[in-house]
Amino acid sequence: MQEWANQLCENRQFGSKMTDSKYFTTTKKGEIFELKAELNSDKKEKKKEAVKKVIASMTVGKDVSALFPDVVNCMQTDNLELKKLVYLYLMNYAKSQPDMAIMAVNTFVKDCEDPNPLIRALAVRTMGCIRVDKITEYLCEPLRKCLKDEDPYVRKTAAVCVAKLHDINAQLVEDQGFLDTLKDLISDSNPMVVANAVAALSEIAESHPNSNLLDLNPQTINKLLTALNECTEWGQIFILDCLANYTPRDDRESQSICERVTPRLSHANSAVVLSAVKVLMKFMEMLPKDLDYYGTLLKKLAPPLVTLLSAEPELQYVALRNINLIVQRRPEILKHEMKVFFVKYNDPIYVKLEKLDIMIRLASQANIAQVLAELKEYATEVDVDFVRKAVRAIGRCAIKVEQSAERCVSTLLDLIQTKVNYVVQEAIVVIKDIFRKYPNKYESVIATLCENLDSLDEPEARAAMIWIVGEYAERIDNADELLESFLEGFHDESTQVQLQLLTAIVKLFLKKPTETQELVQQVLSLATQDSDNPDLRDRGYIYWRLLSTDPVAAKEVVLAEKPLISEETDLIEPTLLEELICHIGTLASVYHKPPSAFVEGSRGVQHKRLPGSAGSGESVESPDAGSAAGVSDAPPAVIPSQGDLLGDLLNLDLTPPSATGPPPAATSGMQMGAMDLLGGGLDSLMGDESEPPPIPLRTDTPQSPQLPHQSPSPPDYSPTELGGDLGGSPAMGAGFGAPPAAMPASFNAPVSSGGLDDLFDLGGGVGMPMGAYSPPKAIWLPAMKAKGLEILGTFARRAGVIQMEMTLTNKAMSVMTDFAIQFNKNSFGLTPAGPLQVLTPLSPNQSIEVALPLNTVGPVMKMDPLNNLQVAVKNNIDVFYFSCQYPISMLFVEDGKMERQVFLATWKDIPNDNETQFQIKDCHLSSDAASNKLQGSSIFTIAKRTVDGQDMLYQSIKLTNGIWVLAELRVQAGNPNYTVSLKCRAPEVSQCVFQSYEAVLKN
Amino acid sequence: MIHSLFLVNASGDIFLEKHWKSVVSRSVCDYFFEALERATEPENVPPVIPTPHHYLISVLRHRIYFVAVIQSEVPPLFVIEFLHRVVDTFQDYFGVCTEAAIKDNVVVVYELLEEMLDNGFPLATESNILKELIKPPTILRTMVNTITGSTNVGEQLPTGQLSVVPWRRTGVKYTNNEAYFDVVEEIDAIIDKSGSTITAEIQGVIDACVKLTGMPDLTLSFMNPRLLDDVSFHPCVRFKRWEAERILSFIPPDGNFRLLSYHVSSQNLVAIPVYVKHNITFREGSSQGRFDLTLGPKQTMGKAVESVLVSSQLPRGVLNANLNPSQGTYTFDPVTKLLSWDVGKINPQKLPSLKGTMSLQAGASKPDENPTINIQFKIQQMAISGLKVNRLDMYGEKYKPFKGIKYMTKAGKFQVRT
């Protein structure tokens, strides 16, 4: 680091020598004298030539300030060119000669009255550039006159002068009332004046974030839009950027602005195009999605963006950075334009890298084949950085487009076969990510990876490989040998690799305790005693204690199930994205950072947000609801970028499973304590590797008297022995915050499937067959939890029989036989009506469909949630537990139609407290269609009433255990939101019944 | 807005600086030089460079870096577009945009920059207006000025500056009234190993040279305007008329200007005018490689493919190439490994080919990378997209102008992978 800084310093010095000294040598004395004489010459021509020479010297950085009085003397001239040249000189040197500069004031005042507007404008322009406080006061009067000049050319120049003056002396400008005059100019008859006034105001507003200088209202907006059509390209940019700050009152105004801005998309100036895109992207948010115009607008946005990519590379770069934002917000705009992002081999590197990024964002199942072919092509190019990024991109495709994962893996394997060193390393790093996304799927490639073990010399690749070996230690016969080989040069490895190696060996030990005791002792001793790195040492101690206190707990913690990484590694966080969309075309959009984060000039910029959709009618509940729906699907969880991934992985290894869902139900209080300790304390300890760990843990060095085992050689780690041994020591108890005696070994509770419930909920998406609604199959038991057995399942009610329909898949390497199933007690007494019919053995990679009829005569116990079902499945390998939720509509019996009279009586009879109301949103069925649909799932409509255009359906449901549920469904024509009121003697079921309503109606 | 401008030559010297607000020390360019040093190729310098207090936005044109310094949030495209305009203006004024030309005309350059930007806001960037304000230097005018003592700075407010047609000055007079339009299309394509097209797109422009007296109002219509769905217009084009009738209606600027540029995307079928048969192979363990390349025309509507130039960056391991062209000449630079073959015109009856061997370093392993073949060519009298002008009419003036339309197709980034 230090070395690098020194080097940088040297470079800087070198740099300044190279540039500055060369030009800033003072001019030879004689030359100045000569010029002085010429400037004072009587001949006009000679004077002019002399001034030209002076200017020429000035432009190359020579100091000619000594000539100031002589040059100013030439100012009083009728020759416009000479005047201009003198003005040029003045602007440059007035600051260094403030006293002399006063001499020029009179001429300025006189020139501002000149009959020639060109001279008036020139004078007012130059005045503002003389950055001398003393002079500025004298200039206020001439400026005021020029702001009201009859000639628009002078007015527009004066408008800019106000901004200049503000930069020099803001107070003066406010006191003199120039800001108000400037605001008036927005209504000027000349579009150029309007544009310059807007530009000046925008610049002033930047330093006054709350001054409300640009008070935009529909009238001013209208004036700006009129001026937009007639002013220069630069003026258009100012006006468009200003428009983007406006928030229209409603969708109609929004549309009319969009309509008037759209022609700018065909402008030849790319900055105009991008500013127009910004306005459209922002105002589009307010348009209802079902509007025809909305679709038209979306279509119009693509061609100009594509055109930007055929411009010069610098323009392309800025455009690509912005397109990157646009595709994240509205992928539909460019989804068919993948090919324009294909890389040409002579694109500059910065363009190549951006294109690659966008290609991945646009990758989908439809175009993945093409994308992969391209990426593979890029991976054989010459530029190392680009090749690496291309290889990473393949991995990101695999994670993003699930269907392509297999093809991506085989592409990566092909690349590994090339044996090009950096390609191999990069491929291994991404394969690690693929393993994390699709555990237990592609492990067959591990052998190929291991072949390349020796060629890995980059820490990231080594660490990735070690992670893979540790994670799949049970499948790799010689995992211990492999890890041992890394251990030899332990101290020469980078921290990243050391930490990973430590974790991997501990994992290995937990998986194969008998053969690897020596190895784990060796690594713990290396980490704790021979290392100066506090992170490594502390992690070593934690493992050490964990293993010695309670190996079962250690297993639970270290081998905990890791959350799957989600599809995009570096999506911009949604609120930031919204803000950046408002800043399209600016530096913020190039850096993908909010302007407040880096622009020095903008003190306290307000955070811009996209406006919410006005939608149609009363659906405006929260302004964000609409915009959130605008993104085609819910933003996936953000996971850290590639660089952080490893740190993250290490971190996760230590996090208890609570990260994925609720902790196992059967944990005792003590266990929770331990978990909290690990989850909270250790997390922060491990989370940031550069952070020094908390002191209490740090003091626990081997020398500390607190630790019973302080012998330099680590103790025997036989799990049982040490568990009791160490556990009994008071020091350990203190360490874990609870007496160790209370540490029950109740870790063998069934693994929670909390995370799965969510999955199941999400699953309720796609179409249903005729009859009772049945949700699509969801993963109940993932293969990684069940030693290779994967169960997908759903419930259905077919001809009055409740069925549990499952797909069993064998993802392990060995044959599975002897399947059996059992349910725990549950709320409605569901129990299998027969044995699980899996007659043939299930060979590897084979799937089988099973339908298990159920009845409701089993033991009853109320579950939470009510429709939760805990299931145990056994096969020849082991017993596995999972829980799932059944839609309560499975329990609606076919004879649930109540008599009208009975219905009325029952309705009245049930106390009002038992009534619950729910809203079903976005349902576009007529009341009759809804009624028919519900009937299919045994929800019977008994009566229908229409009051004030609102249909009220009265419905009844009977559950298998005889509970009646009465319902009133209110449907208003044109309103997609239904209200359903449920009345039942057992109000607990209402929530479940409502879920079924929703599921049935929406499918 | 734009604070300052530095011009940096290929050897990394600042040879001109211009400040529109307070003076920014040229040491700010050190950050640019750092980036320049890091970049492997001159064109790989990132266009936007952050420094602690400023941002540097640069473009590279004619081997000169134009480095703009900005201090507050400014749209980078705005700056880049402006810099391009500066380059165009220099070229327009001095014929070339080189360090020598800029140094020779340093005062005019300074006057121009002052006129183009005020306080960082663009002021006059239309070449018509600038030319009225500051006369371009010509040998004749310099002589006249020296003799008569007159000046090359206009005394009058440029007429276009505030009119509704800021791009055209009034009082234009020609003895020969003429209007020429060049339809030039560049085809960009990537062709894969097997000869199928991965992407192909056409960037087209219509450049005009209009020398007409007075205030002519022109309309240009196309046989097949539906091709043009992605267009950028010169500000003179009336957008509404185009939207409604697909006719270009405009009052032209005086002189040379780009009327419109358009883009025919890969979704439409783009005809590929040439094909390449290639066979570049290296055998494992052998120090020889085979090189075999044949070119041929296709889909050229009978027009000749001319000025064909093939170039390819051969793998680093190639020491030399011993090839035999059936026509034209080839060169191979053993340092840069660049092979270029000047083919000339393709004769469909006798297809040009380049065959021979490449020698590799003895004992070196087979190169991994596959060279990409770059092809340049020209086809006269044809726009590959099929675009055709239907007619050109003039209103508003009485005289009969001389009209002409030329078509040409060129290769842009036309690449064949092997």
From TrEMBL, chain A:
GO molecular function, one term: clathrin binding
InterPro entries: AP_beta (IPR026739), AP_complex_bsu_1_2_4 (IPR016342), ARM-like (IPR011989), ARM-type_fold (IPR016024), Armadillo (IPR000225), B-adaptin_app_sub_C (IPR015151), Clathrin/coatomer_adapt-like_N (IPR002553), Clathrin_a/b/g-adaptin_app_Ig (IPR008152)
Biased amino acid composition, Low complexity: 643-658, 666-685, 728-737
Residue segments, region Disordered: 598-737
Topology of the protein relative to the lipid bilayer: Peripheral membrane protein
Alphabetized SUPFAM superfamilies for the sequence: ARM repeat, Clathrin adaptor appendage domain, Subdomain of clathrin and coatomer appendage domain
Name of the protein in its database record: AP complex subunit beta
Organism: Parambassis ranga
Lineage per the UniProt record: Eukaryota, Metazoa, Chordata, Craniata, Vertebrata
From TrEMBL, chain B:
Cellular component aspect of the GO annotation: clathrin adaptor complex; cytoplasmic vesicle membrane; Golgi apparatus
Transport as UniProt keyword: yes
Localization per Swiss-Prot or TrEMBL: Cytoplasmic vesicle membrane; Golgi apparatus
Protein name: AP-3 complex subunit mu-2
Domain of life per record: Eukaryota
Membrane protein topology class: Peripheral membrane protein
Gene3D superfamilies documented for this protein: 3.30.450.60, Mu homology domain, subdomain B
InterPro entries reported in the protein's UniProt record: Adaptor_comp_med_subunit, AP2_Mu_C_sf, AP_mu_sigma_su, Clathrin_mu, Clathrin_mu_CS, Longin-like_dom_sf, MHD
Assigned keywords, A-Z: Cytoplasmic vesicle, Golgi apparatus, Membrane, Protein transport, Transport
Pfam families attached to this UniProt entry: Adap_comp_sub, Clat_adaptor_s
Family note: Belongs to the adaptor complexes medium subunit family.
One GO-annotated biological process of the protein: vesicle-mediated transport
CDD domains cross-referenced by the UniProt entry: AP-3_Mu3B_Cterm, AP3_Mu_N
Residues covered by the MHD domain: 176-417
Source organism per UniProt: Parambassis ranga
Keyword set includes Protein transport: yes
